[in-house]
Design brief:
Blueprint: H1 2-5, H2 12-46, H3 50-78, H4 80-99, H5 104-118, H6 121-132, H7 136-167, H8 172-175, H9 177-191, H10 205-226, H11 232-254, H12 268-298, H13 303-327, H14 333-354, H15 360-388, H16 394-427, H17 438-446, H18 448-455, H19 460-500, H20 504-515
Helix pairs in contact: 2-6, 2-7, 2-9, 2-12, 3-4, 3-5, 3-6, 3-10, 3-16, 4-5, 4-6, 4-9, 6-7, 6-16, 7-13, 7-15, 10-11, 10-16, 12-13, 12-15, 12-16, 12-19, 13-15, 14-15, 14-19, 16-19, 17-18, 18-19
């Protein structure tokens, strides 16, 4: 027993390798938070419609969601380090294209390419961690660092992005990706080991194509519904996605070497962690975008000040993720997850209360409570998912996990973003400000960014009246979204209590077996 436990401890090389893996994770997160700050600037420059703006923001997540499963499985077959380096190269090139986009269409395409390249990053890094750290305690710590690196990027992104947006064109926020990817390409081959399934056969291209159509068909249809499009198109795409999904599952059951091991979905730890992750990300991810726009468009903060006020939320994620392994010494995983979700729900409720007063410190404190609650949840559910998968299937498991995460995030942006848009517009149906031309009032009804830009063309009195009215409408919409998020998280708490409490003993037994 003792002799088998010693080799399972990670060496200095693995811990240095973990620091290398943190680089693409930080960049992955920075790219999202930086874009949130850049939305008002690119809106003023490219003048996208509200629907186009949603596509600019969430096309990255949609393409990412569709490609994660194929990329995770591909990493198992060709090598996770090889896929990581290829993806890093593509991510850097797509970042340059996005930085110099001159039209809405060009930016949307660039963001789609970024999503495709990013689909190689998260599954590769997480599956490498699964193979590098065999000791359960060390693996939980490593996954905590992995989660913390995303949070560090989220904290650093607004500050760095704010500085760039203060002095440079909005495209500069994409160029910061390039030197980080060059650094990764230079040092990863020397410090990261290569892992792949030794018994892997040839990649099943048809299964990969079916999985992409399945995910994107359903997500696209839901997005169109969220935009209040009830034509035949969203019904058709969702039906197509579900049909292709059924064909995909049927094909996996017949293959000797299936694209995805469906037995993973029968594991209660795997599916419970997946469900909690999806619903939590649904509420958390959309709130980041609303938070950034509130700071700049409602409170009128500069990008730099908005970034600085956003930084504490990312730091709380870092601290919470790193403290999770220590909490596990005294508290069971299910209680930590339930307690974290309860704190997140309280945070959302506090956001709904604080947003009316325009008291920035209290509002940021409420937002920080929400982040503090979610931090251990993401660490533990990710650990549950990866522990449930055998090492040779780590890429596929991480692909499924990240697909659920991106699906939840993209769905949150589409549904909650559209909810905010719908309430905002409903408050401004009868918008009438003396001295404001009809075409300007119409632009103000579309988005708050459009209203602020339109106000800049008006005399001071009319501009102030228009901004006051439209900002109040946005606050009402944001408040409603925060209340919805609180109720969703309460539902997840109930789900967690019922599903995870019975898994505590099983999880502890698994960790003991792995350690011995």
């Amino acid at each position: 027993m003792t002799t088998t436990a010693i080799p399972q401890k990670a060496s200095r090389r693995e811990w240095i390798g973990l620091a290398v893996l943190a680089l693409p994770c930080m960049l992955y997160s920075m790219d999202l938070t930086v874009l949130n700050l850049a939305v008002p600037h690119l809106s003023a420059d490219l003048k996208p419609t509200s629907a186009e703006l949603l596509w600019i923001v969430d096309i990255y997540g949609f393409i990412l969601a569709g490609a994660l499963i194929p990329m995770g499985t591909l990493g198992d077959k060709i090598g996770r380090r090889k896929l990581l380096l290829a993806g890093a190269t593509a991510f850097g090139l797509a970042s340059i294209l996005a930085a110099f986009s001159s039209t809405v269409e060009m930016l949307i395409i660039s963001r789609a390419l970024l999503g495709l390249a990013a689909a190689t990053l998260a599954p590769s890094t997480l599956s490498l961690i699964r193979n590098m750290f065999h000791d359960p305690v060390e693996r939980t710590t490593a996954i905590g660092v992995w989660i913390a690196s995303f949070s560090a990027g989220g904290a650093l992104g607004p500050v760095l992005g704010g500085i760039l947006l203060e002095f440079f064109h909005w495209g500069s926020v994409f160029l910061i990706n390039v030197p980080v990817m060059l650094l990764l390409l230079a040092i990863a081959p020397k410090l990261l080991p290569e892992f792949k399934d030794p018994n892997a056969g040839k990649p099943d291209v048809l299964s990969g194509l079916l999985s992409v159509i399945m995910v994107l068909g359903v997500i696209f249809g839901i997005k169109r519904f969220a935009e209040f499009d009830f034509s035949a198109v969203p019904f058709f795409t969702i039906a197509l996605g579900l049909l292709v999904g059924a064909l995909f599952v049927r094909r996996q059951r017949k293959l000797k070497e299936p694209f995805i091991d469906l037995a993973l979905l029968k594991n209660r730890s795997f599916t419970a962690g997946l469900a909690v992750n999806l619903f939590s990300i649904f509420t958390c991810f959309a709130s980041f975008l609303l938070f950034a726009q509130y700071l700049q468009l409602v409170l009128g903060l500069s990008p730099l000040m908005a970034g600085l006020w956003s930084a504490p939320t990312g730091l709380v994620f870092v601290i919470g993720s790193m403290l999770t392994p220590k909490l596990l010494r005294a508290i069971s995983p299910s209680r930590i997850i339930s307690g974290g979700l309860t704190l997140a729900a309280i945070g959302f409720a506090a956001i709904a209360v604080m947003i009316d007063g325009h008291n920035l410190p209290l509002f940021v404190f409420a937002y920080t409570l929400m982040c503090m609650g979610f931090a251990p949840v993401f660490t533990l559910t990710t650990d549950m998912i990866m522990t449930a998968a055998p090492p040779e299937r780590a890429g596929a498991a991480s692909g499924i996990a990240e697909t659920a995460t991106e699906f939840g995030g993209a769905l949150g942006i589409a549904v909650l973003g559209s909810l905010v848009t719908a309430i905002y517009r409903s408050r401004l149906i009868d918008l009438q400000v003396p001295g404001v031309p009809a075409d300007v009032a119409e632009a103000a009804r579309d988005t708050l960014g459009g209203a602020i830009a339109a106000a800049n063309t008006l005399p001071d009195a009319q501009a102030a009246a228009l901004e006051l009215t439209t900002r109040a409408a946005y606050v009402d919409a944001y408040q409603a979204a925060a209340i919805v998020c609180a109720f969703v998280v309460v539902f997840v708490v109930a789900l967690t209590t019922r599903r995870l409490r019975g898994l505590d003993a099983k999880m502890q037994a698994t960790e003991v077996a792995e350690a011995s």
